[in-house]
Amino acid sequence: MIHHLRQHGTRVVVASNQEEASLRKLLRGHKIEDLFDAVYTSEALGVRKPFSDFWAAILDRENSSPETTIHVGNSPNSDIGAARLGIKTMLWDPGGEIGSAMRSKKNFRLAHPDVDEKEFFRLLHSGLVHPFTTFPQALEALCCPPSSPALTE
């Protein structure tokens, strides 16, 4: 997926709540550090997910806008802040729970005190949040990625 995005001229950055030193060690250990144009951590930015200020700081540093940015994440609890800003948010949903909640019109159970379940459900149906269970499904949903940062975790 990262190779596909980069081949189409999309900047790909990491956005994580993980400590910067351990995240960089992890990326180097998996030999994937060079796949990313930049690495942003809550430690360096001074604000954590799910707060929208986390993504606003990255958009500012990347000179980008919510309309031209895609966030790929794996935690509804942490990643809702991107959707709150109007960033198209792709959520890794290997068990299909988010997609199931979306289809059945039931609220999805969230565990973060700053994340309102009704707000998440509204965002889920707004077209801003897209759960995916396979990478081909994610690529299909992305269709024609914008040539600006794709925020990945």
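(the above was protein one; protein two follows)
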Amino acid sequence: MVARHYWELTAWQAVVAFKKGIYDLIEREPLATDLKLREQLRESVASAQSHIAEGFGRFDPLDNARFVKMARASMLECHNHLGDAVDRKRITEDTRRDHLLRWEVAMKEIGGWLDYLQSPEAKQNADRIRQQRAERWRARKHGNSKPKRNREL
């Protein structure tokens, strides 16, 4: 399936699932009262989701990959904060492990998306789509009938 919107990406969806779990976690005591740690968790997981969406808006696969790498780094930051929450006795190790199950799924999806974006296939697909868009633009500009639109665009 070709994703036409960032919210169709399995990497974005997996990060959202992880993020919702973190949001539920930071609303519970005693983590809810540790405002700094709570904010660090919230910001790191939210930025991971945002980076994937922003990268999708960059049509160039390597530029998109740059944002996906930032998303991966934000997920690693969140992982670190969960460990810090255990060290500060704000959550238990079992709670951390429960959240890391969703973290691992998200990281696997991010890794797969990043692998694709850095592949020759991604560059070829982007070049093909750019070419088709240019042909449609030229046809409209010169008053020719519209060429058939490829459903994968």
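Reviewer note on protein two: Helices lie at 10-26, 35-56, 61-87, 93-117, 120-141.
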